[in-house]
Amino acid sequence: MRSLPTPSPSFTKKKDRILQQLSIPDSEYTDASPKGSIDAGIRHLIDEINRLDGFVTTSSCAGRVSVFVEGKKAMDPEQQAQLDEGYDQEQVALKPAQIAGVGGKGGGGSWLFVSHDPVPLEEGPNRADLDLLLGLRSTQVSGQRQIGEGGSSENPAMRLIHFKFEPMAGFRESGAINLTANAGESVTPIVAIRSMGLTLESLIGMQTQGGPQRTVSAEYLETLLRIANERFVANAERIERFRLGVLEATQPPKKEDGTEWEDAQTRRERKRAEGLRRKAELQKQELDTGQDGAYADSYMTLNADTT
Predict the structure, then answer these.
(1) How far apart (Å, rounded) are the C-alpha atoms in residues 137 and 267?
(2) Do 156 and 99 form a contact (C-beta atoms < 8 A)?
(3) Cβ-Cβ contacts under 8 Å for 156 (sequence gap 6 or more)
């Protein structure tokens, strides 16, 4: 990889501010994630990237398994008008527009369970109560209200419960942004990293008046957790490959003789620095030699006078 340009003052200032925030102890640091702090499983990667000149990152999700209730969207003006005209709220709520998109946790959605580490699954008397662990009720829902094709049900306003495993991820979408800037502004490219192929999601229940209701068997939940645990292992391997790849890509390139490659500007600066250093060393040697000679002359004159 060729040497990066010197970071702009605005980037350096932004990076310093980010590093100050990240230096806060984990017990005091908070962010917008459900965990509220940087995942321990990826802290070393963040620190290594932030030690690289010209790089900075705050992405902190090392991967997680979660159970959540999807949220509702806010009422549109038409629905609000129907309420004002005396329509029953339950009738208005039947509109599909009331439900947030699949996977959406906004609009009143809630987390029932989140873990950034594999979930221990023990057999025998120590076997975990998965309903208690995941925040669910085990009573099966009547067949008249089972989840149907496409995640819908007889009640379009029903809020579904999702089980989801997500691997290491940075931003919501992958890609590169801020590659160009307006006139007079510095460029700070942002690259979003996402690990693909490991995501797992399944509908496992629905929100009822009695609370979060499981609609799948306990064996199915256990199978989902076992798959998620396997993907935690694969995710950790990917994180390590990514870490090594970043470090390798940011090392100075080598020439055939094993020495580091340098562009013309870097070579000129190195030669100039070497020349100034040699000049300073020669001046120091001349000064030291002159002082030694003066001491010798004084010593010889003193001996002559004494005799």
Answers:
(1) 69
(2) yes
(3) 94, 95, 96, 98, 99
State which H helix or E strand residue 20 sits in: helix 9-22
Q: Which two tokens stand for residue 181?
A: 């800037």
Under 8 Å between Cβ of 10 and 186: yes
pLDDT, position 261: 64
Over residues 129-167, the pLDDT tens digits come to 899 999 998 755 444 444 444 444 445 567 899 999 998
d(CA 14, CA 23): 14
What does residue 159 show for φ and ψ, rounded to 5 degrees? -95, 125
d(CA 38, CA 202): 26
C-alpha to C-alpha distance for 168 and 243, rounded to whole angstroms: 12
The whole-angstrom separation of Cα 233 and Cα 271 is 49
Total Cβ atoms within 10 A of residue 265 = 9
Per residue in 25-38, is it b (16+ CB within 10 Å) or e — as a string? eeeeeeeeeebebb
- Separation CA 182–CA 179 (nearest Å): 11
User: Which own/partner contact pairs does 50-55 have at CB distance under 8 Å and 24+ positions apart?
Assistant: 50/15, 50/18, 50/19, 50/22, 52/246, 52/250, 53/4, 53/7, 54/4, 54/5, 54/7, 54/11, 55/250
The reported pTM is 0.64
Rounded Cα–Cα distance for residues 79 and 141 (Å):
29
Give the pairing of strands 190-192 and 175-177: antiparallel
Ordered by start, the domain boundaries in the chain are: 61-70+109-231, 262-307
Nearest to 122 by CA among 222, 266, 199, 264: 222
In 3D, which of 22, 63, 62 has the Cα closest to residue 42?
A: 62
Closest by CA position to 186, among listed 2, 33, 5, 3? 5
Name residue 115's beta-bridge partners.
65
Instruction: With beta carbons less than 8 A apart as the criterion, state whether 213 and 136 touch.
Output: yes
**HSE (CB half, 13 Å, CA atoms) of 250?**
16
